[in-house]
Structure formats: C-alpha cells, structure tokens
Design a protein that fits this description.
This protein is an alpha+beta fold. Helices cover 10% and strands 26% of the residues.
C-alpha cells in the first residue's frame, strides 16, 4: 500500500477539500457518488491518517471520515496509478488522465 493510502491525494489531503477533507466509506452494496472521495475500501486503506467523524445513519450505513494530512510529497507518489492507467500532471498535481478529463469538462 502507498504511504498515504489507496485514495487520491490532492495537495496533502484525501477527500473533499470544500468539506474539510472529508471522505465517505460506503457499504459494498451501495453505488459510490463521487469516487474521488467515496470508497468501498476500509478507511485505513483509503487514507492512512484519518479519523472517524460520524456514521450517517439516514444514508444507510455510510460512514464519514476526515483526512488529517500527509507529507508534502504524498501527491507525487504513484499511489493512484493502476496497471494500464495513464498519469498526467495538471497544475503541479499528479492525477489519472480520467481525473484530468473530468476536471476540464
């Protein structure tokens, strides 16, 4: 596992920056809304430095976590690259080509 975890790191954090670097762990039978910060992975696999915030009981078992940050070089690791995935750098941030495409739409 990469040092920061399996989730996408932006800057020094996982999760939704506009919501305090939070991410959500979904039950396996629920579809993810935003794969950039929603996951089926255990929280400690998605992010190695996080804390549980709360269980969203009205959301059918979704649990909210907050990334507490990683080393300044966390975004430069090949943490997001999977076999066959093309990586690009946009604005100094390394990401998958698919993520770059989503950002430019």
């Amino acid at each position: 596992m990469p040092p920061a975890g399996e989730g996408q790191v932006h800057g020094r954090f996982h999760g939704n920056a506009t919501k305090g670097n939070k991410f959500w762990v979904y039950p396996k039978d629920k579809a993810l809304v935003t794969p950039r910060w929603d996951t089926h992975l255990p929280a400690e696999v998605f992010c190695t430095n996080c804390r549980r915030v709360r269980a969203c009981l009205l959301s059918g078992g979704i649990v909210e976590y907050q990334c507490l940050g990683h080393d300044k070089d966390a975004q430069n690791h090949d943490w997001a690259q999977r076999p066959g995935q093309k990586m690009v750098t946009v604005g100094g941030v390394k990401m998958t080509a698919a993520e770059a495409h989503r950002r430019t739409r």
